[in-house]
Amino acid sequence: MSLYSDVSEQTEKADGWQAIKPAQITDDHFIRSEGSTFAGYHLLVDLWQARSLDDLTLMRATLQECVVVSNATLLHIHLHHFEPNGGISGVAVLAESHVSVHTWPERAFAAFDLFMCGKAVPHHAIAVLQHAFSPQDVNIRQVLRGVVSGQSSHDLGNVP
Predict the structure, then answer these.
(1) Could you read off the pLDDT of 80-139 as tens digits, one per residue?
(2) Which of 91, 96, 103, 117 is paired with 68 by a 20 to 30 Å CA distance?
(3) For residue 40, which of 3, 70, 1, 79 has the smallest C-alpha distance?
(4) 107 by DSSP, 3-state: which?
(5) Which of 42, 70, 97, 124 is catalytic?
(6) Which of 42, 66, 117, 124 is catalytic?
(7) Has 66 been annotated as catalytic?
């Protein structure tokens, strides 16, 4: 049995996200890519001037589709619908981690967290979010979580 298995990963280019390089997955579901080993990709996705952010049925279906296209394993979805503005907060708990959401329909803004390890590729969910909520602007930040010690990482350090 090999210590690693192959998986495609994506990297950011000026014109968006695209599948590029092969990555390897360790037996403990860490990812090895371009000389780094880390627990997973954590994408912070902000949607601006988005639509239907108060539609609970659409949100549930969108989270489910995000899980499928990312090659992840859904364990549970919990969503809460706030009144009177109709905002939604919730999480899709995954075997590979989570997808969370918080919406502000009155500001046409949604914040999504996509954190996944192993063979799951959270970058694939971006197109699903764009299709479901038709934002005019999308801001994506990527953080590599759990970078193995001794490798480069941009963080604020450990807090006691």
Answers:
(1) 999 988 999 999 999 999 999 999 999 999 999 999 999 999 999 999 999 999 999 999
(2) 103
(3) 70
(4) helix
(5) 97
(6) 117
(7) no
